[in-house]
Task: inverse folding
């Protein structure tokens, strides 16, 4: 099974048998006051610059999130998406908790987007899945619901199954569902990493679907977060991770991913590993 998303003259494929791709996360005002300030003033210069820099660093899909205090996402998300389309040809991941903002962004995006996200809550299923079907997009499915993020594997797998069944009943193809098994701070719960990896192993084995997660959540509260994030991603690649949401500018990340892909059998003959090595 392969998940495909597209930009202008650009197709990105990922899946269990394919090399891992990066969903580049930097266009997000969380923890970046300078970007939040720009967005509040309706400016998009940093958005265009971030898009270019992340593609140069090896980002495959560009996540666009404009959620900040004082920013109207319904107005700004489509504007930011247009800016990213001017800056790069890469596919876009539309990252908003507001379905109206996703809808507005889909209206300006003429290719196959990755919607971020739907979850197991009834309201989310009802609002988001019809947009996925109508636009022919792919969608990230969070393994959480109205009761929050389950602290055990079994409940997360159950939610994944619920979303899968509902999506398929609407005629959405399984390859267009990308499951987020949810990374949480390992400093708060020392089983956090194990729960994410075990859930990912289960959903990939039982449903054959593609997977993602926001990698940096794992390292909250710890020093040298980049090191923890890299190791988390490479361990996860062996356990079914297809497309992490991460910062492609992290030093050494690309090389570590190419090494993990090679060892996980996602890069037969190591062609990607070797070409990454030659870049140095
Ligand atoms: N799952 C899905 N989508 C997601 C997340 C997820 N989208 C949002 C988030 N989690 C992933 N994206 C980010 C983006 C930025 C940061 C963390 C996650 C971040 N930014 C730095 C900070 O706060 O310190 C800013 C660093 C800088 O200035 O360079 O941490 O889990 N489906």
Result:
């Amino acid at each position: 099974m392969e998940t495909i998303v597209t930009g202008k003259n650009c197709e990105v494929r990922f899946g269990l048998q394919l090399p891992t791709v990066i969903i580049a996360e930097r266009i997000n005002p969380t923890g970046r006051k300078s970007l939040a300030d720009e967005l509040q003033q309706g400016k998009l210069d940093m958005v265009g610059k971030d898009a270019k820099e992340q593609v140069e660093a090896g980002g495959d899909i560009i996540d666009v999130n404009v959620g900040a205090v004082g920013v109207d996402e319904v107005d700004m998300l489509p504007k930011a998406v247009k800016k990213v389309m001017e800056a790069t040809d890469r596919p876009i991941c539309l990252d908003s908790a507001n379905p109206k903002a996703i809808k507005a962004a889909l209206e300006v995006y003429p290719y196959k987007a990755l919607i971020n996200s739907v979850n197991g809550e009834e309201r989310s299923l009802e609002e988001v899945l019809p947009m996925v079907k109508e636009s022919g997009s792919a969608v990230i499915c969070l393994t959480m619901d109205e009761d929050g993020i389950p602290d055990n594997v079994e409940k997360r797998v159950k939610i994944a199954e619920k979303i899968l069944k509902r999506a398929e009943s609407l005629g959405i193809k399984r390859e267009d569902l990308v499951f987020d098994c949810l990374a949480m701070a390992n400093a708060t719960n020392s089983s956090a990493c194990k729960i994410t990896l075990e859930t990912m192993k289960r959903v990939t084995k039982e449903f054959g679907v593609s997977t993602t997660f926001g990698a940096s959540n794992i390292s909250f509260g710890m020093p040298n977060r980049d090191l923890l994030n890299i190791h988390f991603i490479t361990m996860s690649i062996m356990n079914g991770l297809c497309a992490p949401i991460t910062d492609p500018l992290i030093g050494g990340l690309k090389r570590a991913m190419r090494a993990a892909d090679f060892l996980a059998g996602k890069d037969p003959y190591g062609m990607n590993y070797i070409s990454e090595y030659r870049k140095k």
Observations:
- The chain has a mean pLDDT of 98.
- The pocket of (6S)-5,6,7,8-tetrahydrofolate is lined by residues 25, 28, 30-32, 65, 95, 116-117, 140, 180, 213-214, 216-217, 245 (CB under 6 Å).
